[in-house]
Every structure is written in C-alpha cells, then in structure tokens.
Amino acid sequence: PADAVVVEIGTFLGCSTVLLAGGRKIRGSGEVHAVDPFDASGDPFSQPIYASIRDSAERSLRDRFEQNLAQAGVERFVHVHASRAEDLVGRWTRRVDLLFLDGNHEYEAVLAFYCAWLPFLKLGGILAVHNSRPGYRRETHDGSARLVEERVHPPAYGEIELVGSITFARKLNDGRP
Predict the structure, then answer these.
(1) Beta carbons of 131 and 40 less than 8 angstroms apart
(2) Are 109 and 140 in contact (CB under 8 A)?
C-alpha cells in the first residue's frame, strides 16, 4: 500500500533491499528499514562467505551496501539500522506491512526474530522468509525452513507461496484457534 513500512532483517550487500526499495520508489512512497550490524556476524555457515567478501574489499560491508543502494537510486526510501534485530525491536513502535526475515539462519535466531517482530506485522501484512524451501537442511543454516514448516500455516497465514527460496505468507490472525 501507499506509505508501506517494510522491515528487512539481515541485508548483507543489499540485493533484496534494492528490490524492496525499488517497489517503494515505483509507488512513490513508503520506506524500507534495513536492519543489519554490518559486521560479518551471523550463522556459522555464512560467516566464511561474509569474511571472504569483507577481506577482499577495500570498503566495508556497510559502504558496499550503501553504494549498491545509491547505484540503484533507491537510497531515499531506505532507513539503515546498523544494529542487531534483537536490539532494535525493543525500541520499535511502528506497524509493519512486510516483514522479511533474512538474517542469521540458525533456528534459535530465526525463531527469536520471528517471535520478537511478528507482533508488529499488521493483519493482512506479508511475512517473507528466505532460505525456507521445504526440507532444506544445512547445519546451522536451516532455521528458516524449520520455522516455516512449524509455524507458517493456516489459520494464522493464508496465500502461502514459495517463490525460489523465499516463502511469502499473508498474516490472517494471531494464530490462536
């Protein structure tokens, strides 16, 4: 909708952020809140990837992220929160139209992000969860798939669709029978 609030947990270099903000740019309103500590932390499966990119670049991950936003011309639609999601949620007060979980993919972390941020997702809002293909199993990296298998189903959600490796679902209620 107009003036939509999008929260992206885990931004890495900004590919998804550019796509999300591109939609806001086309609409002419709304904002994407990109939440990431930009310190190459995260699940053990991903840390070597982050470290190799960080070590091979003269610029920080945050600089590369911001360069990608600027190159796409979407930076004015993005609010960057160089913070851990669990630290920011305690100060968050706004309702969210789209919540995209793409941070640490360890089960405990994904479940914590989900439980902490879900109360802010509006009824009718969209939950998007990356790396959530059914049956996806990689040690310390399968938390998103497990979360969707366990928690993202009717009656709490409808219009559940897997697109590539991202599950999209519309929040229908708070999940209580």
Answers:
(1) no
(2) no
Q: Residue 48: pLDDT band by 50, 70, 90 thresholds?
A: confident
Q: Tell how many helices (H) and how many strands (E) occur in the chain.
A: 6, 7
pLDDT at 177 over 50: no
- What backbone phi and psi angles, to 5 degrees, belong to 31? -155, 150
Distance CA 127, CA 149 (A): 14
**DSSP for residue 66:** H
At 123, list the tokens: 């009824």
pLDDT in tens, 92-145: 999 999 999 998 888 999 999 999 999 999 999 999 999 998 877 777 678 899
Residue bearing tokens 């995209």: 100
- How buried is residue 175: exposed, middle or buried, by Cβ count under 10 Å (0-12/13-18/19+)? middle
- As a whole-number percent, the residues of the chain with pLDDT over 90 amount to 69
Q: Please answer whether residues 146 and 108 qualify as being in contact, where contact means their C-beta atoms are separated by less than 8 angstroms.
A: no
Is the previous residue joined to 37 through a cis bond, with omega within 30 degrees of 0? no
What is the spatial distance between Cα 39 and Cα 5, in angstroms, rounded to a whole number? Answer: 25
Nearest of 106, 125, 159 to residue 30 by alpha carbon: 125
